[in-house]
Amino acid sequence: MEKTVSFITQNFGKYDPTSIDSYLDIGGFSGLKKALGMSSDGIIELVRSTGMKGRGGAAYDTGRKWSQAASVKGDKKVVICNADEGEPCTFKDRAIMENDPFALIEGILIAGYTVGAQDGYIYIREEYRHLQKIVSAAVKQAKDRGYLGQNILGTGFNFEIHMYSGAGAYVCGEGSTLIESIEGKSGRPRIKPPFIKECGLFQRPTLVNNVETLVVATMVLTHGVEGYVCHGTERSIGTKLISLAGNVNKPGSYEIPFGLTLREIIYDIGGGIPQGHELQFFQLGGASGSIGSASLVDTPYTYEDLSKVGLTVGSGGILVVDDRTRVIDFVQSIQDFFIHESCGKCTPCREGNRQIDKIIGRFVVGAPRPDDLQTAERFANIMSNCAFCGLGETAQSVLLSAIRQFPEAFEVQGR
Q: E-assigned strands of 155-263?
């Protein structure tokens, strides 16, 4: 199996991302033209045949999501591209927007046509200011050349794209929170139901997709399903953009086929651990992802195989940590992050994070109370089951997985 492939990233380096003419020269917008000649059901079936799951972290089936959005009745539907990418150790969407912004615009148009939307919104995190300029310029050029606006390519399809900037809140990566932010409100999640697909932005039916998800749709419409489904495994089809970082010699964003082992990713693609140090653990999917010990390094990078050992693909982030970092110190750093990023709306997350932080602090200095571990586990499980949104539900993934993988880090002195 090839270690790295080029399907999602096949346009990288082949055109000038500041020039629509350069994009057209390599066949840009041919996927949109194909989509405009198809029915909505036909496009959905094509996307469904890829087996693609959403690339923002939740791994919801994309074909099913588009089908549900298309079935909702409404005259003013919306497609939102979630380019917030606030998950630590995740920067693959940044690579797409830097190298292939027009494919993203094309993907939004394809999604809009498929679900019957008239407006698209690109929500980019505040820290990506340079990308806001690149994508905004691409949107303007697309509109000037007739790929946005009224009666696109003479088909009667009308669609506009609007740009919005976040303000740096991690929680705004969650769909309903992102919508609240676009509406000018405080970034806090909404009660569901009603669900976003029925009542989202400005109470309009809304489809929210990640940058990578939309670009995969562009490539599938442009180049066909075969070039995608020939990669991967039976249940984890295709390729995935990963963000490899931490204690590796060659950090970066790479496109890989599903099915490589974590060892191949870390040692073959990433060049191994620097300065002769040993792998201690890795974290998958950003700060909200679980950690895995070095004993799991031969696990295949697929949805099903990772799930068997308590790990997830998530956003595609892979953080490698070597023997220079104590597990308990890493847990504390993640806990500090979630205390800072919790919106404070619900009690389980707001108070649970604070109380767990106090307990972890005692483990860090080697003076935990006899019942601290049990209390931390109990609070973490309450958060996982009762928190209002995904942030609170997954904030303790690191703690719970560390307890399973590294029980010695939580041993009480004197036992």
A: 157-165, 206-210, 239-246, 252-257
Note the pLDDT tens digit of each residue in 229-240: 999 999 999 999
Longest CA–CA span in the chain (Å) reads: 78
Fold for the domain defined by 327-410: de novo design (two linked rop proteins) (1.20.1440)
Q: Which has the closest alpha carbon to 173: 59, 315, 289, 311? A: 315
Identify the burial level of 14 via C-beta atoms within 10 angstroms of its C-beta, where 0-12 means exposed, 13-18 middle and 19 or more buried.
middle
Q: pLDDT of 127-141, one tens digit each?
A: 999 999 999 999 999
Sheet holding 252-257, edge to edge: 252-257, 239-246, 317-322, 279-284, 291-293
Q: What is the pTM (predicted TM-score) of this model?
A: 0.95
At the topology level of CATH, where does 20-229 sit?
A: Rossmann fold (3.40.50)
What sign results for the dihedral spanned by CA atoms 374, 377, 380, 385?
negative
